[in-house]
Amino acid sequence: MTTSESHRETTHPTQGKYVAIALVLAAITIVEVAIVYLQFLAGVLVPTLMVLSVVKFALVAMFFMHLKFDHRLFSTMFVVGVLLATGILIALLALFRVIFSG
Amino acid sequence: MSHMQETEHSSLLDTTTGLDNRKMFMWVFLASECLFFGALISTYLIYRGKSLVGPYPHEVFNIPYTSISAFVLLMSSLTMVLALGALRRGDHRGLRIWLLATALLGCVFLGGQVFEFTVFYREGVSLSTNLFGTSFFVLTGFHGAHVTVGVIILLSFWVMSMRGLVSQQQSLNVELAGLYWHFVDVVWIVIFTVIYLFEAPNIVS
Fold it and tell me: Which of A39, A45, B76, B186 sits a CA distance of 20 to 30 A from A18?
């Protein structure tokens, strides 16, 4: 039995690609901070910020945490945790009438 | 290698899943941490805007300052992944440099958080001032505690590497530390948006 660390063959990004991803993350952060000061975007600010946040979260999880290249069971474990946490958050906010208050 | 790509072996391990149990444990642990921080973020949002006395979030938050902290933590994820890449190439000097850089960036983030907490306290926000103070300090305090644990783990690996105790074959240990560190980063991505940016003037008004 070998001491291999992964179930399937994986190819990791190059250092250049990691730097490129970090630059994208930095750019998204700058956009996030910039748009909160733009008055004409006030109506769509919350959904826009949430989408940008999800994109950053996904980039880190997929590339820096290697979920894109690792075994799917690891992704499943993590995604189940994230979905459960999101579900609980939505349920609690609804229960306390923070959202869906009619 | 022209593209510096690394290829892991594809053989199965002698476990039920064929995967390394330590890595599986780490992912299950991180999934449980999602629930932990999910509960704290939920609590903050439930009590958002329900404080009976000030100071209120928009009176004390400094978004440009926190943005720099968020940027620092994001860049520490880059240095962490570069540290792991260096170890997988057998570049121990690179490993030590990037590990130390990651730990230092973590310390800068923590220093920024301590400074922010101090400023808030001087402006009248404490753990018991109002619902905002309680939910904010508990959430960001627990995150800071996680960052502190991460810094200690990274510095431990740095010291072990200096003593020649971290080998290329044991890269999984550093990878697990990296997973924890990246998780701390993604949690801050959410906190930064939901706690800080949602208090921006355009949203508050």
Answer: A45
What does the DSSP assignment read for B13-29? PSSSSSS-HHHHHHHHH
pLDDT under 70 in chain A at which residues? 1-11, 102
Q: Give this complex's ipTM.
A: 0.88
When scoring B35, B41, B68, B189 by the number of chain A Cβ atoms within 10 A, the one with the most, hence best to mutate, is: B189
pTM of the shown model: 0.90
How distant, in Å, are the alpha carbons of A33, A74, A90, B35, B135 from that of A80?
A: 30, 10, 15, 10, 26
Residues of B in contact with A61 (CB under 8 A): 182, 186
Domain that holds residue A42: 14-67
Q: Given CB atoms, is B2 within the 8 Å cutoff of chain A?
A: no
Nearest C-alpha neighbor of B79 from the set B102, B96, B97, B100:
B102
